[in-house]
Design brief:
Length: 166
């Protein structure tokens, strides 16, 4: 009789222990759910534009450079793909107001990579006429009309010829 009583007592303790673990896990789950709801309703990053903006910019860059979005978004270090990728970063940052972390998420890159890409494009825009012409064409396609005949390069205005030839 004592063994049945002992078994019953052990099972009761085990049940109480499992019940306590279950209640603890349920509280943790509800706390995490509450935290996720809060993050969903109050995101840490406020998106300036919709994803359609970056898709449109990417499509226009690909059209001008005659490449595919997967090549621009890829990891290739060939100039045929890095220049459009860097230009994408530059346009998204300075013309659409995206943060480097947001652009980095799109490209699956670190924010410092985006900063470096913008810095390189700023340098190239000062000296590379073909890149400047492509940049201007992309901006005009995207609706960034520049009636004064100037470009925004390296936080300065750079004069350009009215005919569109740089």
């Amino acid at each position: 009789m004592e063994t049945i009583y002992q078994q019953h007592h052990d099972l009761k303790k085990r049940y109480q222990s499992l019940l306590l673990k279950h209640e603890t896990m349920q509280r943790q789950y509800e706390e995490k759910l509450k935290q996720l709801r809060h993050e969903l309703l109050n995101p840490k990053i406020k998106y300036v534009k919709t994803s359609e903006d970056w898709e449109l910019v990417l499509r226009e860059i690909c059209q001008v450079y005659e490449t595919s979005p997967s090549e621009v978004l890829g990891t290739s270090r060939k100039a045929d793909f890095t220049i459009p990728r860097h230009l994408f970063c530059y346009i998204m940052r300075f013309h659409y107001g995206y943060k480097t972390t947001q652009i980095g998420r799109i490209l699956v890159k670190d924010h410092s990579t985006v900063l470096n890409a913008c810095k390189q494009i700023e340098y190239y825009l000062e000296y590379d006429k073909i890149l400047r012409r492509n940049y201007t064409a992309i901006l005009e396609i995207l609706g960034f009309n520049n009636n004064e005949g100037t470009l925004f390069v390296n936080n300065h205005s750079v004069s350009r010829v009215r005919s569109g030839v740089l």
